[in-house]
Amino acid sequence: MNDNEKYFAGLQFENKLLKANGQAFEDLFTQIMTLRYDDFRKVKAYGNLGDRKNDGFFPAENIYFQCYAPEDIQKNRAELIKKLNEDFLGLVEYWTNNGFKVENFFFVVNDKGSGLSPDAYVQLQAIAQAYPAVKMAFWLMPQVKTEFLKLAKFQVMEVVGGILTDDIGDVDYWALAEVIGHLLQNQQPISFTENLDDRKDLDEKIKLNGLTQRVATILDVAAYQAGSVESYIRENEKENIQAIRDRFVNYYEESKQQYFDTVENFSDKRFIFIADKALPAHDDKNKVKKIQDAIFVLMSHFFEHCDLFESK
After folding, report:
1. pTM of the full predicted structure?
2. 312 belongs to a structural domain
3. Predicted confidence band at 90 (pLDDT cuts at 50, 70, 90)?
4. Same domain for 156 and 265?
5. Which residues 6+ apart lie within 8 Å of 262 measured at CB?
6. Which of 127, 145, 194, 229 to pair with 4, CA 20 to 30 A apart?
């Protein structure tokens, strides 16, 4: 992957992690590790036996991984410490009693970029002192993301469903219609008073929102195809277009709750969040790129014409 593809793939992956709780996170983690390492072994839970506190491991190197992904890590601080203790002790007991060595233990936590409390590190240190022969550490979002970005391009696409790029082709009418149909089906009632025809200067707004040049390029390139959206608007009911606009604005409000202003590159991450929310499920992977292009053209249109993102 080139630098742009890697950047957007990383943002897409972070966005995917935001929604990956419980089993979904474990499946995502083991998918990445299985794609990256031929000798990684996923441990499947079987009924009441479970996975014996081992979600995956490298048998030859005696390295073990156990995942934990609550919906809200900050509200589960005590549960995290409890699970860390129970999982490590359960893992050591079962696997060493069955002829395996445990020399490295990684507790993989989907912290969603928030980090862990001091209590968690104190507890890990206490366990490490009690078991000096075992090297142990937390794996958080940065470590999992690093493994993801080391995948081959085709593997990255398998995980995130397609890599966003600024190489936007001619937008097909069916793609616009499919995206708009998806958004209309998922609309929620919102009341906004801004005028849809109130245009904003694209460059000034990009600068105001602190979007990086990578995202700015996507908006610039997509803006050249504004005629596709305007043509669609002329041929369809204005109420539908207003509903689409409201849907995008609502996605933006959601994105602000996921990525606060204190997060690095928060505007870019909000942009990716919105694009991901607008993407309809599709079995034909060959059409995903065209659908993504249609989303970018729509986002560029509403970015310039209404209050999608901040404005003066």
Report:
1. 0.77
2. no
3. very high
4. no
5. none
6. 229
